[in-house]
C-alpha cells in the first residue's frame, strides 16, 4: 500500500487569528476590565480557564467588563481558595478613585 500525502485546501489550512490581548501600561487603569488578568490566568492555567471565555475587545462595554471580572472572581473562588477579596465595584472603579 502506497501512502499519499494529504492535500488540504487553502481555507482548511488557515488557523484562527490571534486574539487581541490588551497591553498593560498602567496596572490600576488596565486591570479594570479584567481582560488582561483573564488572559494571564489562561496563560498559567489553560485547563482551568479557556481563553474563549474571556471577552477580549478593544472597546469593552460595561457588560463585557463585568463579565470578565465575574469570571475572575469565580476562578479565584473555585481554584484559589476564595483569595479575591474585592467586590465587582471595587475592581471596576479602582482607577477612577485612586489617585497616584
UniProtKB/TrEMBL annotation:
<dbReference type="InterPro" id="IPR022613">
    <property type="entry name" value="CH_CAMSAP_2"/>
</dbReference>
<dbReference type="Pfam" id="PF11971">
    <property type="entry name" value="CAMSAP_CH"/>
</dbReference>
<protein>
    <submittedName>
        <fullName>Calmodulin-regulated spectrin-associated protein 2</fullName>
    </submittedName>
</protein>
<dbReference type="InterPro" id="IPR001715">
    <property type="entry name" value="CH_dom"/>
</dbReference>
<dbReference type="InterPro" id="IPR036872">
    <property type="entry name" value="CH_dom_sf"/>
</dbReference>
<dbReference type="InterPro" id="IPR032940">
    <property type="entry name" value="CAMSAP"/>
</dbReference>
<feature type="domain" description="Calponin-homology (CH)">
    <location>
        <begin position="1"/>
        <end position="100"/>
    </location>
</feature>
Amino acid at each position: 500500500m502506497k501512502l499519499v500525502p494529504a492535500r488540504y485546501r487553502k481555507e482548511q489550512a488557515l488557523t484562527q487569528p490571534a486574539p487581541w490581548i490588551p497591553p498593560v501600561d498602567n496596572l490600576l487603569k488596565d486591570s479594570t476590565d479584567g481582560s488582561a488578568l483573564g488572559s494571564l490566568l489562561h496563560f498559567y492555567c489553560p485547563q482551568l480557564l479557556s481563553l474563549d471565555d474571556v471577552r477580549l475587545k478593544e472597546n469593552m462595554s460595561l457588560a463585557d467588563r463585568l463579565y470578565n471580572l465575574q469570571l475572575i472572581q469565580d476562578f479565584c473562588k473555585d481554584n484559589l481558595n476564595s483569595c479575591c477579596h474585592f467586590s465587582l465595584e471595587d475592581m471596576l472603579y479602582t482607577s477612577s478613585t485612586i489617585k497616584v
